[in-house]
Amino acid sequence: MKNSLKEKAHKTKSRIHSFRSLRTVYTLLVLLILVSAGFITASVYIILYTLDFIPSAALTPLILPVIMLFSCMIIGTILALFVGKLFIDPLRQLIAANEEIRHGNFKVRMSEHTIIGELNNLMNSFNSMADELEATELFRNDFINSFSHEFKTPIVSIRGFARQLQKDNDLHLLSDEQRKEYTDIIAYESDRLARLSSNILMLTKFENQQIVTDKTEFYLDEQIRRIVLLLEKQWTAAEVEIELDLDEIKYSFNEEMLSQMWLNLIGNAIKFSGKGGKVTVSCKKKKDFIYVEIGDNGEGISKESLHKIFEKFYQCDTSHKSNGNGLGLAIVKRIAELANAEITVKSEAGAGTTFYVNLPTIET
């Protein structure tokens, strides 16, 4: 019932738009001119005939075209003024709005109230474009601010400790332990800058990539095991227990790209599970999808942060105590998009976090 009502409403709306189309308006205007001209011609002819200004019926064929011509000229001029206002004014507004956009004002919007369907659609498209440009500008500014902050913090730290070591070359005020601590901090911050640069380049590469190349067939379970072994130093140092439940599954995709996804997800699970925590990784195939679950029993993610975790540079830990730059999950999200996969997350404060990745076995 509801669907039929929606269809009727859609058809009615389509008929209204069709009636208000530019072609229809022009056709009606021409018809109006012809009908009006005919009416005025007949009226004038009757008046002239009544007042005996028409001496003979023989002159009628000559008088009628003249009356028709003048009638069309008068009516056409009046309608042209009206039509000019109807069409030209919105176009002038659109030109002015385009100039505002060109000068960087993305908040300008057009009024969509017009009887011409095409002009209304044009204004609607302009407003949609302005919305997208404004959102892009806000995102660009936010990205630049976040990028500058992430780069500035380690650079300031490196510069400060390097100057302290420079001064110590002359004054010899630092102990061997302090000197080692300063050099360790410089090395740590340098590694952080290197990781940030590498992640930015990787994310930019994936964002600009639309077609996945270099696809090969490999065992997904073996790939995940290799990633876990690659991260062995991290989970052994944190005394994290790793539990694997992997079915033997063949998969076809860019192996290096998919490895980066598991590296980020499992690495995050280890990092946020806490000392003595537990990380579970499951990989199962059901019908046309492969279901991968990666979970930890850490502190979890708050509801306020859960919908932002895939944004660039966003970090739930605002104190930046954890070793990260907020790009790992943005990379994961983009790889999932390229793989036509669906990625979701479930988390509760104090109960840990689980990421669910559904990979299609059939390429779409």
Overview of the structural elements:
This protein has 364 residues and is α+β, with helices and mostly antiparallel strands. It folds into 3 domains: 2-103, no CATH class; 135-208, Helix Hairpins; 216-360, Histidine kinase-like ATPase, C-terminal domain (Heat Shock Protein 90, 2-Layer Sandwich), CATH 3.30.565.10. It has 10 helices and 7 strands. Helix 2 runs antiparallel to helix 3 (60-102), helix 5 runs parallel beside helix 10 and helix 8 (255-273) runs antiparallel to helix 10.
Unreliable runs: 1-6, 8-19
What strand order characterises the main sheet?
A: 2-4-5-7-6
Fill in the CATH topology of the largest domain: Heat Shock Protein 90
| Mean pLDDT value | 77
* Class of secondary structure makeup: alpha+beta
Termini separation (Å)? 34 Å
Counted by DSSP, the helix tally is 10
Q: Which CATH first-tier class of the largest domain would you pick? A: Alpha Beta
Approximately what portion of the residues adopt beta-strand conformation?
A: 5-15%
Biggest sheet details? 5 strands, mixed
Radius of gyration: 36 Å
Write the layout of secondary structure elements.
Blueprint: H1 2-19, H2 22-50, H3 60-102, H4 117-171, H5 176-208, E1 216-219, H6 220-230, H7 232-237, E2 241-246, E3 250-253, H8 255-273, E4 278-286, E5 289-296, H9 303-306, H10 328-338, E6 342-348, E7 352-360
Parallel strand pairs: 2-4
Antiparallel strand pairs: 1-3, 4-5, 5-7, 6-7
Helix pairs in contact: 2-3, 3-4, 4-5, 5-10, 6-8, 8-10
